[in-house]
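Service request form, structural biology core

Requester: graduate student, group of Dr. S.
Request type: structure prediction, single chain
Budget code: on file
Notes: please return the result as structure tokens.

Sequence provided:
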Amino acid sequence: MSVPLAASEYGLADAKRPPLAILHGLFGSGRNWATLAQRLATERLVILFDLRNHGASPWADAMSYAEMAEDLRVAMAARGHRRYALLGHSMGGKVAMMLALRDAGAVERLVVADIAPVPYRPRHLDYVRAMLALDLAAVSRRGEGDSRLAAAIPDPAERAFLVQNLVFENGQPRWRLNLAAIEREMPELVGFPELHPESVYRGPALFVAGGCSDYLRTEHEPAIRRLFPAAEIVRIDGAGHWLHVEQPTAFLAAVEPFLAANV
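Core staff response, request fulfilled:
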């Protein structure tokens, strides 16, 4: 059963270009993309979604890419959008790829940021477990949560990103993330499903890699081109996995012309 996704919209609902749906990565939310969405929304409707178990969207026990792609398809159809562009980062990139492969006719074009349709090692599982182990009863503000996670998550930038998900309601802390489901479904999240041999998206596709990231490597390119034969692959020098945050100007310089092409 699909989950009704929380979303924020930017731009013109009656724009001539197809709407663009943007999908965040693991531990993120749509609001992480708000600044870039405003830039991309000058001539199109841009919709930022919170994927299931993230942000303001409902929680669910399962997190397969087929299910998350169906969440997105239903959400776009409910808004009256039958054809649209997709931009997904990391986990959101896998969701976008899955929807393009399952419903190619709906996807006008595809942008995938720093991820490939391949399995990865569960590099963030320790983060999930550290967050689950945090004694929320002893935390009265976000800064305390940050300091208590420092030993398990030493990188301050990564820790700051994660504790954005620590929220307080009536003074009571809680995680906006369904950490139990994320921990349980991590094998699904780091993988990519085996698909029917004829599952191919032949539409325009742009894969944008961070030059300093190891998520989208040269050895992944055959897997990309098998499923996305029209794919263009570009790399942004000096950018890591969060390339749209670290190098936003270069990221937009790659993405904007692609999104505007063949209108």
